[in-house]
């Protein structure tokens, strides 16, 4: 099978109006469609109809996330893979959500719902495809380019890593291990980025953060300036991660879902060795500059 | 088949000692092996034994370039593909060059020799794989991270594009076309970068430039400062390409082979639309800021 | 006497409507007042009512420039100084232009009219003075912070340097000299920037360029991207000057007056030695990266 | 009188060998002279013999700091001013320290010793004065350009501000005030930088930090990366100050003296209005991104 990328995240929010302001005005995503209790967004540099769905709910957290596959019959192959791993499988009909084709859905042992789809309506990038400018005139707020990755928490990181690597042909770029070699964090990619999806040890079913790509360290500064201007609750001021080398800020949407602006980061290949971080260096692996664990990092989960 | 990336370029140079100073001291590649008339180099952020080979010769230009494949039996599949396209095929024995496994070689209709290999000795990245720093202490000169891409010239861009897209499953990210829709430039990628290999209309068999990746626009400035300090012959001062959005300088090695420092650039996917530049915007496509063709751009080929 | 800075430049433009779009929409200055054939502008980070005046005229070029002094009686002292140097002196009444207090005017031996003033109406910086944000929400276009400096041409650079240094207590930061030690360029500052005013050898009375300050090398890239987007005639793409170390683009307003975006640059003190560039390094002094004289640099004067 | 800048800081350190590694190898200052228990350093972009003196002592903290004046008779005028303010005055003979001319010394009401000098031996900037490169080849470690400013603590901020403004003709750029308008912080400049010297409310006689100038936000990242690599105790990871808009990291030398890398920042003039921060915004004034007071900020004083 052939997975193109992590293509979509659906996030539960407590108040859709507030969330719209956050993801639309502040982060600068573009709203492409809506339905009662739901809004669809894309980044300016994304082609597909949406990469973020906001769903009003009485609890924050992850509704589901989805990977886009390249060929129609990848869906059937993924179905078989899930069955081989003993995971539940379900088909989602085309049109169940705005702009989406048929999907295959499963639930990971970590309790997260993931889907796979091959069809989505097309909107196109904001700068167009003919003699385009390098960035759009009307970038708003932080002006993130695209949805980039998610970090989830779960108990069985070995199991979930095996599913992605052996079942779905992802590659592990980096990992954090304890003294016994057990996984405390597992970073997995199918594109040449440090992570399309990553997991850290923690309660099943929880969302740690949704990452959005910005281009440069200067963009990270600009994001942090805007976080301050708009009093966005901020957990991590501009910093580098040891894991992935990425440049980052962490902050929360009005419902308490953690977001990240992420720039830089490695460009890993499938024949790269896995980069290993040891537990005694965990704080430095995550907060490379501060080198101290921020307490809410492990507890503020949705 | 499964191609991991463009992995290697072998460049003919007129004077090996001078070329060593340029690629080693100035660009900051690391020499990993040598043989009479030949030197092997890698970037600090590359795992394999070498990505650049310098070969002393009485003419500058491209000796060959090579793509790394993921699985051993990819080589046989590529052999068949080449035969299907009517291209000559040749096996290169393991050990013909230092550190290299067996390769399959062919010659493109544009006259360039390309190879495919699955095995290369391993040296590892300069920062190591366990709790690594984000960059090495001993970066020298420009300190490029890695060999990134090549641009070649040739007559039949439609043919060579068909081979890469249909034969080798590359994707075309961007193109420059004339009024009749004929290709003047074709950008092809197999990783999520704007180009692993690209072609512009011109004489067969020629090398336009070898691109090396640096991380940021500040690194491009630093490169340009060093080009001036070391009186490296420079063709393009810091600028952006319209094609790929990349940030860049062009300059020449002592033998007249053009090099590029390249940062930024898009992160294309296989389902992206092709970005099209029209001939009337050609100067802007290449020199986005200056918007005038630099005469040597089309004529300084090796 | 005590001169605070170069505070104002009045520029002749051929078409006020076009010039307004250029200085207002493109550069991002704010229009603060207008009168028939005249418009007044300030940068977002400037306190005074205006720093740029556009005057419709049948020829482009400099109308006059002006230095702000600290104390009311500095004007009389400057008057005496001008008389001591044998320069013509004239008083300009308060209110002759919108927002301006009384001024002392003279004409340099290079034929440029300069004025000195102590009073100007106050508008204040765009971010306000109480708990301010670091930059305004509504930055438009390039979004320059402020008017920074001018470069003028003239024949007697020794004479004009003597007036500024001995008469007005400026300091020479850098200079370009020929083999005989004669001045080809003279950079003069009264604040801690590389130049408030500079002169290069050339015809008397001409304006070479008006420099506007932007904060970073990333801002210079952004300016160059916007110059391309808006097809602003560009002479120098992002580059460094050897003289002053400044980061820069050169481009022209619709009337042919050269503008510069300028970032970085040294922070000179009055006890600094003068930095000297020799004529054989003139191209590198001006175009540090390209190291070749751009022909229009010496000829495109207004 | 005419004060050129803050020119020198003498810091008490517990272990000179460790301090030498910190200020020399890590920060990248150049040692220009030494005597038993004392070492003299300068930044690569400074002309004078030294700007930092390290003195071995059994307590960390400030030994003294010094302002350079422009003219020899400024010293007598400052002497009178100190006497007029009722401050003790003392002459320090030329040659009391290596490379230094005669000085006038006083003690501020806040208990800090400050000196004024007009003469210091000359070493010159690392890139030289003729056709110089923009930065030196052999920058080490963080590679700070220069000593920039100090922040001191004291009780009577109104008194010390009056001395600098009325006595020494400094200008107040920014201030933090409580509800009654009392000063909690006072930023004072004599050059066009946001602060040559600043004070915050706190115990008399203490040093809060010594600031070193780096050029860009990318340099701040590089500094933070090196702080992590060399396990330098870090208090503030890359951030912006609201006060001055400066970009910054805080960290400690091995004796516990706080250092800052500082880039950006405003370019204030003597006719600028004072920027005022109110106590309820104090955390944001200092830590613009984190918007929470870091406890050690007020307590880690030497």
TrEMBL record, chains A, B, C, D:
Keyword annotations from UniProtKB, A to Z: Aromatic hydrocarbons catabolism, Dioxygenase, Metal-binding, Oxidoreductase, Repeat
SUPFAM superfamilies: Glyoxalase/Bleomycin resistance protein/Dihydroxybiphenyl dioxygenase
An annotated Gene Ontology molecular function: catechol 2,3-dioxygenase activity
InterPro entries according to UniProt: Catechol_2-3_dOase (IPR017624), Glyas_Bleomycin-R_OHBP_Dase (IPR029068), Glyas_Fos-R_dOase_dom (IPR004360), VOC_core (IPR037523), XylE-like_N (IPR054560)
Domain spans labelled VOC: 5-119, 146-264
Coiled-coil regions listed in the entry: none
Family per similarity comment: Belongs to the extradiol ring-cleavage dioxygenase family.
Subunit comment: Homotetramer.
Protein name (record): Catechol 2,3-dioxygenase
Provenance organism: Immundisolibacter cernigliae
The organism's taxonomic lineage, starting at the top: Bacteria, Pseudomonadati, Pseudomonadota, Gammaproteobacteria, Immundisolibacterales
């Amino acid at each position: 099978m052939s997975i193109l990328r992590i293509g979509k995240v659906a996030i539960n929010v407590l108040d859709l109006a507030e969330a719209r302001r956050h993801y639309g005005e502040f982060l600068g995503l573009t709203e492409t469609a809506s339905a009662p209790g739901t809004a669809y967004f894309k980044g300016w540099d994304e082609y597909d109809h949406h990469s973020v769905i906001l769903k009003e709910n009485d609890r924050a957290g992850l509704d589901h996330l989805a990977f886009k596959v390249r060929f129609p019959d990848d869906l059937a192959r993924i179905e078989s893979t899930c069955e081989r791993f003993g995971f539940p499988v379900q088909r989602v009909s085309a049109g169940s959500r705005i702009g989406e084709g048929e999907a295959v859905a499963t639930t990971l042992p970590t309790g997260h719902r993931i889907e796979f789809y091959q069809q989505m309506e097309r909107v196109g990038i904001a700068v167009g495809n003919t003699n385009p400018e390098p960035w759009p005139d009307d970038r708003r707020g932080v002006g993130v380019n695209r949805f980039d990755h998610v970090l989830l928490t779960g108990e069985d990181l070995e199991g979930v890593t095996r599913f992605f690597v052996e079942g779905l042909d992802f590659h592990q770029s980096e990992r954090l291990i304890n003294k016994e070699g057990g996984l405390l964090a597992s970073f997995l990619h199918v594109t040449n980025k440090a992570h399309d999806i990553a997991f850290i040890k923690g309660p099943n079913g929880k969302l740690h953060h949704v990452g959005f790509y910005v281009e440069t360290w200067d963009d990270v500064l600009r994001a942090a300036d805007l976080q301050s201007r708009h009093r966005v609750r901020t957990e991590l001021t501009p910093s580098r991660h040891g894991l992935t080398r990425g440049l980052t800020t962490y902050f929360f949407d009005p419902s308490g879902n953690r977001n990240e602006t992420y720039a830089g980061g490695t460009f890993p290949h499938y024949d790269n060795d896995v980069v290993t971080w040891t537990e005694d260096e965990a704080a430095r692996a995550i907060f490379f500059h501060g080198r101290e664990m921020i307490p809410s990092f492990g507890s503020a989960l949705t």
